[in-house]
Amino acid sequence: MDKAGMNQQAATEPKKVFVIPPGPEFRPEHREHSILYAPFAASAMLLSPEKRGLFEAWLTGCGAQGMPREYENMLRPVRTVKPVFSPLEYNTLSVIAGFNCNFHCSYCYSAGSRSGAEIASEQLEAAIRHLLDAGRSSSRERSIFITGGGEPLLLRRVLFPAIAGARRLAAQNGLSLTVMMMTNGALINDDIARELLAPGIHPCISFEILEDVQQKQRGHYRQVVAGIDCLLNAGLIPSVSATITPGNAGRQVEMLQQARHRFPAITEFSFDPVVDNSLFTSAVELEAFYTRYLDGFFAARHFARKNGLHLFCSLMERFDRLTTRYCRGQLCLTPGGSISICHTIAAPSDTGYEACVYGKADNDRLTFDMEKFTRLMNDDLHAHPECNDCFARWNCGGGCLMVRTRLDKASLDAHCNFTREFTRRFLYDNLVMTVPSGINDLLKEPENNIY
């Protein structure tokens, strides 16, 4: 990964416009160009060396002349940061139904949390009533995310009736409700597929797609494929989420090719890099993995665009909005009834659990420790001086709490370099993806916005 110059940038106070140096992935005709990135203006453009000098002078107030009006218009802010001040603002409920699982994935972040703990139906119902209280928020949009920790379909006897009740309550209160479930897919049969379809639960299958990788990292390949077939036969098209490890970082295009061949109806995919210090012997090895992930991901992104597929990752979501915190936090209900800020830190045995729990489902209602919630939300980019001069700061927001909890200092530095490199590649990829590769086909300025 190219560290030299990663943070060389000019920015206005409080660092809202950045000049990002070129990267090795830039086309030959752009190797001397930089990226002008204005996150608050939702825009970016390529700068020739001459234009870079002028912009740096303009941005630092050293220019002999003022900035031309067309560039001022391009840099005019159109977005603001909207922090969360109260858990009452959350319109998404995350649910971890239990910690039992029928898989033993090699990289599982919650394997140490395995227990027989299950969510109580009355606690889940209390959380759903809170979510679907029409008077709590002006928004009509609400969502429920049934996530991992264990395999949620092992507790479908609790989940399915609760979701059916949630549908009825949402309709009664004039609310729109979406429901998504993360599942390994191995338990799905025709009956379960119909049970998912009836209350409108969208399944997202955790699946490595390639048989040899699935068998090595997760197992149960044939059962998962059979489960996906059952969903498709029921008319329910899932999305697929794959974890990228050293074993498949260079095979991401192949993964999409295989998925397109075996499951042509599936078009939504998410490929995220693994977070597991034990897989890497050093930060240098981790950085090499991140480079392979980036090369593979952007090659797969190009393949997806050409073939009518949609490929995402968590970092891409950071460009949808500006933030001072990596995520907005969560209203995450866990077995035992506690409310955690993060679904990956949800069991008493998890590192950081006590610090992350800020509420409880108790006595038929939710209660919150507002002082603790405020402390959690204040752990943002302003709390980390190393973020001050980073061009990814308004997208990264100081980094993911789970990543900060699980990685050592050297590995965390490697992850920060990875985030900056992803930001640079994502901006450049969006700028050039519709431009021919001829040497004279430089991007027009300043019309090229990234959003």
From TrEMBL:
The keyword Metal-binding applies. GO terms for molecular function: iron-sulfur cluster binding; metal ion binding; oxidoreductase activity. Gene3D superfamilies: Aldolase class I. Pfam families: Radical_SAM. SUPFAM superfamilies: Radical SAM enzymes. Keywords: Iron, Iron-sulfur, Metal-binding, S-adenosyl-L-methionine. Residues 85-310 form the Radical SAM core domain. The keyword Repressor does not apply. PANTHER family: ANAEROBIC SULFATASE-MATURATING ENZYME HOMOLOG ASLB-RELATED (PTHR43273:SF3). Belongs to the radical SAM superfamily. Anaerobic sulfatase-maturating enzyme family. This is Sulfatase maturation enzyme AslB, radical SAM superfamily.
